[in-house]
Prior knowledge:
By secondary structure, this protein is an alpha+beta fold. It contains 20 helices and 13 strands.
Amino acid sequence: MSRKTLTRRQFVAATAMSSTALIAAPYVRGAYAAGKLSIGLWDHWVPDANKASTDLINEWAAKEKVEVSIDYITTQGNKLLLTMAAEAQAKSGHDILSTQIGWQPHAYDELLEPVNEVMEPIIKQNGEVNGTVKYLGQANGKWLAVPATIGSQIKGPCSRIDLMKKYANIDVQEMYPAGSSPKADNWTMDTFLKAAEACKKGGFPFGIGLGQTTDSVDTAGAIFQSFGAELVNAKGDITVKTDAVRQALEFYKKLIAFLPPDAPSWDDASNNKWLISGKGALIMNPPSAWAVAKRDAPQVAEQCWTHGFPAGPKGRFAPYLPFFWCTWKFSKNKEAAKSLLAHLSSPAAIAKFVEASGGYDLPSYANFTTLKTWAEQGPPKGTLYHYPNPYNHQTLSIAASPAPPKIAEQIYNQSTLTKMVLRYAQGEKMEDTLAWAESECEGFMRS
Length: 447
């Protein structure tokens, strides 16, 4: 959401929510030598994950003699998104604030404190960050925010071992063995399509949404990119009417025939429910659906295996959604904020975040894709081994890239990819669908 379009009602609601949450938030009392620091973090869905954050912040606060208040803010109802918009408009708020989506650093670039001095030693220590983090976290050579391990995720395939073997004749454990590199040369979009057809005939369709929320858009982004399909290129040129885009639409039209009939109305909870119910052979999701199945449907969880995306003609892509920690230019204690961000990006902190989240949270750094948590999680043991892309065999991407981020954000938020897919699959002529998408992109450039 642009700070220019924030309505008064949204601003009041966000401010009231943030203030209420702050009163109930954990509070750390300490000496006043280094002042005070106010922190707004994503309210994690894993029960022990917030405690890990609190413990790490308390540890730093005690050492640095800083008085800290921590505000855990939910993403439900876009409250974290609204909080950032409200603070940007008021020029007042948390010294450190987590993003809800990766587009926010660019949306507020003029108001964010550059953090090159924080990022340079972190990267030297932890290894390079992936390309999507650079794309979303940098502008004109400046780091706008620090990549947050908390909340960052890959939305890759989670397959049912038994159903994929029985109906598609695919052994996902053999294709992506725990502890060693993938043997996935034949895991292509053509293979994926045949598997979707076979599982549909067997009564267990792939659970892939076609709606207008992030899970559906993220999957569409990876599939489009695997065909080299871009609506707007990195230079900002509209590139809708290309053979690559036509190929992506043709592929999706075939795939849709094998998906649940209500997939166009799915939201971000739908694929989770689909897996946990035992109705489907595959979904695209981080390990949250598997984790809930482990609790509520263990017979389903013990048959789940998380692995890489199928490859298209232009490569193998996987949707990566990074969260960031931002510091405002108007923050009252920027030096303490930067010190804490460095602490939260240390190897020990990263390992603690991953462990506390049960392997859900993903570091952005090259040196942290083989932590023991992913090898040990189960059942079945090793089910998350390939979740962090340890062999770098697929490109981590975000839908609508490589368009300039402020244009890509609009393509993403307006669900242009899934709308195109449905228009064409429901009978609209290809060239009419392309003309509609081109007009949409022209509008995004003017706004």
